[in-house]
Amino acid sequence: MKLKTQISAEDGKQELTITRVFDLPVELLFKAHTKPELVTQWMGNRILKWEAKKHGSWQFETADPQGNVMFRANGVFHEFVLNEKITRTFEMENTPFDVQLEFFEFEKITDETSKLTMHIVYRSIALRDQMLQMPFAAGLNMAHNRLQDIVSKLK
Amino acid sequence: MKPNDYTMNLRRDVFQAIADPTRRAILMLVASQAMTAGAIAANFDTARPTVSKHLQILTACELLTPQQNGREIYYHFNPDKMKEVAEFIEPFQRMWEERFDKLESIMKNYKDKNGAI
After folding, report:
1. Strand runs (DSSP E) across A51-132, as ranges?
2. Tell me: domain B5-86, CATH 3.40.630.10, correct?
3. Which residues of B fall within a CB distance of 8 Å from A132?
4. Do A131 and A9 meet the contact criterion of CB atoms below 8 Å apart?
5. Mean pLDDT score across all residues of chain A
6. pLDDT tens per residue across span A49-76
7. Most buried among A48, A111, B74, B112, using CB within 10 Å?
8. Inter-chain touch B92–A146, beta carbons under 8 Å
9. pTM as predicted
10. Residue A117 CA from chain centroid, whole number
11. Which chain B residue is nearest to residue A147, measuring alpha carbons?
């Protein structure tokens, strides 16, 4: 089955583009990115700060079921144009990864459908490739942990 | 190996292959050392024929390579194939797909509850 979300990541470039068409009016698609009580639901994270305005800053974290913080990220909103555009920075805390620049463009297709284009620019080609691989690596780690569980049960 | 259905759409099937948690666990296991089907199966609660089926799929996708060694067949991990086919983008794409699916359903619900936007 074809996924609705498309990733364009050309070889040898330090950027990528994520596009997705939503069965939602553009106003609701935009709202999902500005209201912290909505962002927290679809991103599955805990919002520490979400100043949805030009020069506002943001910070969120994700925790495991025991409440240990697994991941924290922050950034600044550079541009905020209602129902049209958000430009922000994104940086993972306590990691060697440099900050990335993200452009979100919101487009109305019909009254009930809209399109989001996320253009992400990284500091280097290597960093982009590393970010693309991260969910894959996490998947392998999960398999590895599961394997360790299985093996430790055998002992 | 006989040609079979799995080679028909190799790219799609490799992603299906690594989407399954048991098959990922098998890959992790074999990545550390070549093993026989019996030794692999001993690591899982799953029935032996199920493990054989997983090995067949992984072999058809060329993620594993069987090699005869005396009377035994050892399965070797093929990291080049993994790199070549995966380009590692698929899980990244799925991560965003899942987030956006959630966003869509949350906002539809939000619209219903709030009536007009």
Report:
1. 57-63, 69-81, 85-92, 100-108, 114-121
2. no
3. 88-89, 92
4. no
5. 89
6. 999 999 999 999 988 888 888 889 999 9
7. B74
8. no
9. 0.65
10. 12
11. B25
Find the domain containing A52 and state its range.
5-154
How close is the nearest chain B Cα to the Cα of A54, in Å?
23
Domains of chain B: which residue ranges? 5-86, 87-117
Instruction: Note the pLDDT tens digit of each residue in A126-146.
Output: 888 888 877 766 666 665 566
Q: Is the reported ipTM for this assembly greater than 0.90?
A: no
Which of A116, A129, A134, A144 should one mutate to test binding to chain B, selecting the residue with the greatest count of B CBs within 10 A? A144
What is the domain-level CATH number for residue A130?
3.30.530.20
Higher pLDDT, residue B70 or B2? B70
| Total domains present in chain A | 1
Which chain A residue lies closest to B96 (C-alpha atoms)? Answer: A5
Which residues on chain A are in Cβ contact (under 8 Å) with B93? 3, 5-7
Question: In percent, how much of chain A has pLDDT > 90?
Answer: 63
